[in-house]
Amino acid sequence: MIQSLRNLFRNPDKARRIARVPDGERWYVIGDIHGRLDLLEALQAAIEDDDAKAGAADTTVVFLGDLVDRGPDSAGVIKLARKWGKKRKVRYLAGNHEEMFLDSFKDKETLRHFLRHGGRETVLSYGVKKKEYNRMQLEEVQKAMQQVVPAKDREFLESFEEIIVVGDYVLAHAGINPKRAVDDQKRKDLLWIRDRFLAHEEPLSHVVVHGHTIFEEVEDNGNRVGIDTGAFRTGRLTALVLEGDSRRTIQAAQAEDGSITTS
User: Fold this and answer.
1) C-alpha 16: how far from its chain's center?
2) What is the pTM of this model?
3) At 28, is the secondary structure helix, strand, or coil?
4) Helix (H, G, I), strand (E, B) or coil at 129
5) 3-state secondary structure of 149
6) Phi/psi zone of residue 3: left (φ > 0), alpha (ψ -120 to 50 degrees), beta?
7) 20 to 30 Å CA-CA from 237: which of 3, 35, 120, 214?
8) Are strands 236-243 and 246-254 parallel, antiparallel or unpaired?
9) Residue 86, Cβ density class (10 Å: 0-12 exposed, 13-18 middle, ≥19 buried)
10) pLDDT tens string 185-212
11) Which run of H or of E encompasses 151?
């Protein structure tokens, strides 16, 4: 059963801005996955089922960035995301963790930062053994990454977009700089911005759908909708469905016994 987005709003009493996607289109926007392949597999099945039941539409699936790091199977997430895009229309937005991952192949200081913020799990997901990893120096980790991460995975991540504009919505990993026009955004802000965007309460030209910042529940503040529900930490992965002027969610959630359900 699909749960109404308004039941998940952190601020349910605040009036929601009416925004639309073009008629005949349906968009499924998936929040930060962070290596939780199990949740993504369940959410993928739920999205496919929902799209089949919802009727004919020009459907697009969007990954909102941060596919990798922290969770146990970033390599598997990348593989699923790439394969899904061969079967239907899928678009991919770059997150700050994809940027760190890619930069780590050449820059050791970025690699150091990457490993401290979930990159260790990404390296292990490509088959590097924990005991071997624990004995490695930084240079050795970088060399191992260059050997075990397939070129096709790096090329795939490098192809990710920075921003998508659809109807009255902007889709971006972290958000936008509220002082700049949508067509004048900088990559650093789209992938990394936080406080300046989250604290902005004045009207924006579009409703921004974003991840990057974890909320216990989907947060709709009129100008923005935050859909990072902390998959790696909470066991809940959320997709926002946009169609006409409606917004609803599909969520994959892990129960205490380890089972995963969708709603």
Assistant:
1) 23
2) 0.93
3) strand
4) coil
5) coil
6) beta
7) 120
8) antiparallel
9) exposed
10) 999 999 999 999 999 999 999 999 999 9
11) helix 151-158
| Burial profile 92-108: b = 16 or more Cβ within 10 angstroms, e = fewer | bbbbbbbbbbbebeeee
| Cα 251 from Cα 30, distance rounded (Å) | 9
Find the helix or strand (DSSP H, E) in which 171 lies: strand 169-171
**CA nearest to 192, candidates 74, 79, 73, 103:** 103
Residues with Cβ within 8 Å of residue 128, at least 6 apart in sequence = 144, 148
Side chain identity at residue 176, one-letter code: I
Q: Where do we find the tokens 């990993």?
A: 173
CB-based burial label for 56 (10 Å; 0-12, 13-18, 19+): exposed
Rg (CA), the chain: 18
Tell me which residue of 77, 99, 56 sits closest to 189, measured CA to CA.
99
Residue 32, token pair as written in the block: 């930060």
**Tens of pLDDT along 5-42?**
333 444 444 556 789 999 999 999 999 999 999 999 99
Quickly list DSSP for 77-112.
HHHHHHHHTTTS-EEEB--HHHHHHHHTTT-HHHHH
